[in-house]
Design goal:
Elements: E1 3-7, E2 10-13, E3 18-25, E4 33-39, E5 46-52, E6 57-59, E7 67-72, E8 77-82, E9 91-99, E10 102-105, E11 109-114
Parallel strand pairs: 2-11
Antiparallel strand pairs: 1-3, 3-8, 4-5, 4-9, 5-6, 7-8, 9-10, 9-11
């Protein structure tokens, strides 16, 4: 069974930083793409950052310049370095991996930014 497990969430004050990590297990082949999404109650889950297998990245406008997605080239692991956090960054962050027709989701990790 393929599992994605996120870690690194927590509570920080505005202006602080967090580094989220996600590791995929139970899959022998490298995931083609990995991404981070976040969701706040009452809002649609939104794409925060994505990375293709080749390393191309995409960020939502709200996090550009503050968040950095990175991948380990030898294993199915992805990180999200978050800096200059705002209260609006609060939410549950989900890791997603994709290969072929399959999408895999982590359980989410809570990020809470206090003013």
């Amino acid at each position: 069974q393929v599992q994605l497990v996120e870690s690194g969430g927590g509570a920080v004050q505005a202006g602080g930083s967090l580094r989220l990590s996600c590791v995929a297990s139970g899959i022998s082949d490298r995931l083609y793409s990995m991404a981070w999404y976040r969701q706040t109650p009452g809002k649609q889950r939104e794409l925060v950052a994505a990375s293709t297998n080749s390393g191309a990245t995409n960020y939502s406008d709200s996090v550009k310049g503050r968040f950095t997605i990175s991948r380990d080239n030898t294993k199915n692991m992805v990180h999200l370095q978050m800096a200059s956090l705002n209260v609006e960054d609060t939410g549950v962050y989900y890791c997603k991996g994709a290969r072929g027709i399959y999408n895999y989701w982590g359980q989410g990790t809570q990020v809470t930014v206090s003013p």
